[in-house]
Predict the structure.
Amino acid sequence: MTTHIAPPEAGPYNKNEEEEKKIILREYRALLRALKERLKRGDKAMLRRAFEMAADAHKDMRRKSGEPYIMHPLAVARIAVEEIGLGVTSAICALLHDTVEDTEISLEDVEREFSKSIAKIIDGLTKISNVVDLKADTTVQAENFRKILLTLADDPRVILIKLADRLHNMRTLESMSRDKQLKISSETTYIYSPLAHRLGFYEIKSEMEDLALKYTQPEIFTEITQGLSETKRERTRYINEFIKPIKEELSGNGFEFEIYGRPKAINSIWNKMRKKHVTFDEVYDLFAIRIIVKSTPEREKEDCWKVYSIVTNFYRPSPERLRDWISVPKGNGYEALHTTVMGPGGRWLEVQIRTERMNEIAEKGLAAHWKYKEGVPTAQENKLDSFLKHLREILNNPDTDTIDFIQDFKLDLFTEEIYIYTPKGDMRVLPKGATALDFAFDIHTELGRHCIGAKVNHRLVALSHQLVSGDQVEVITSSKQNPSEDWLSFLITAKAKSRVKSYLKEDKRKIAEDGKDALKRKLDHLKVNPSQYNLNELMHYFKKPSPLDLYYAIAVGNIDLKELKNFVVHGDKLQPAVKEIKHDIKHAAAEEDHPKHKNSKAPELIIFGERSDKILYKLAQCCQPIPGDDVFGFVTSGEGLKIHRTDCPNAAQLLANYGHRIVKTKWAKNKEISFLAGVRIIGMDDVGVIQKITNVISGELRLNMRSLSIDSKDGIFEGTIMVYVHDREELNKFCNKLGALEGIQKIERLESSETPS
Ligand code: MN
């Protein structure tokens, strides 16, 4: 990407040309070594040509770190081969992946030099890279994401190389600017890590998420990594104690195996801390035990259960935590036996049992499937095929609303699966939470469309009935039935939702025609065209997700076209008047006022961009930032600039989808204005507790308190305090003081959604 380029003098690299050449060649030879067994006659020459072509095309370019640019394609090729398990063709494509985008080389050159299929993959990669277009609108971004998925359905190698590319960019994010780090990290957690997960690349998924956490929330990342290294000794001792008897018994039974304790990903530890409101010290399952046995295709199921039986001879299993993904593998191909057992000292511990083949699939996902194609039962291949088929089906449906679809599809990516049976005993895999109606749509669109109910295990249930694994479901239909709006409130699969939406859309479309005409007349009057750009602006402003919704709302009178006076016309472009603050700060400052923030009368608190322009802003309600927090500004369409914390629950989605609306922001030093912040405290109930807390607030620290509420039950109290502080430092001081009080067990900052008001 062009964004990586910096002038040659930048960075710490000042090696002479000879030395650089040596490093590049060393990297290239490492790639050859990684491919070794897969190199057939003629491959080496072709690889060499790709390497030389790329090296020559990028020869005057450098990465932000100062390295020669060619180091990037080389690293991507190595990741593709070593970590994803791809072959020679993919390595060639990885070497060339940035040439068509960034250099003089054209697709035709690639096709002439190599082959049509290689050119096609490069074309796919070039198209995907436009997703990172900072100026693109949401609809464009969504359309690009759809393209990614289409290429995935077309030739999965495109997306696999793209994952390698993204992983390398994440590994080398250090030298990028702060806003690029945020943008790229958010995009990674929003799009790429769920995809890696869906395709079964657990290692890559975890690494991407950990790196994203490192850049979006550095303090938390450091806290957890430090915590992990401080507790390492104790952990190793515990793991050794746990595995000792198992090891002996497995050897005694003639198994060839590997057994070890594996720390959980930093991001998943963080998720647990956040979800359960616990500190690092309170997360007890920081690791899982993994046992990998050598086995043969015929014996592997039996062997895994034998290992299970040995483990549970020593440690009591929790019956509800047994997961058999051997008899029924996960949708992404994952196979293993998971159990949770009670280890020494009464600690619950997850044990994962796999064969070597299953382990490779767990690490290399889709690619390993190809490798084992011959040895694998056909049912599994079918599952991957049906995933790709399903994807293709939806994406090729012209009625699919892309943004909606992506939201739904992403939900599909994340959820756990349940297994449902037809009356004939055929099994279907559905996401957890799926309803009888989702099941009907999964079988066939027409069945879903006319579904009036279902029999679950021979008992009559409503359309919205949620299924659980093992249910047998018979769909009941009527030709008179047709989809209705309320179906969308309980359907959860992307396929069913998109089908229902397109049925509903038909009606809506007819009505919307009137709205479209009305809008066109109004725009004619203003002498602007209903261009995509203008439509996007109107959609943002009126908060409508699509042009159809916009037209429909106009047609039924939910939108008053008089509101167009809130736009200004620049050439052929409509712009919300509020954007003007960027160009004419004083003017805007005079007109706007901040009724919601009585305390922030002086707007010169924050410095934007490189220059220290002072602009009006509002603090986002969803995360209530205070000075000292890591923040960014977001240009909204109706309400000016909003300041969010980078760890705001909405941040990833905003940064990934609206990159062009992000404004770099930091706090100016100012001690005159205070901000509302909330903390939650938990502690032992004690008569004097409120007294002690208020002493800290108004006595010692002289803070202004807005509210204090305390609930107490069974000797434990939980309280919420809202105080005005000047900055994060003061808030931290406040928390530390409270923490030092006797009986206080925990203090944490509130997200505002929990704020009592
Ligand atoms: Mn690249």
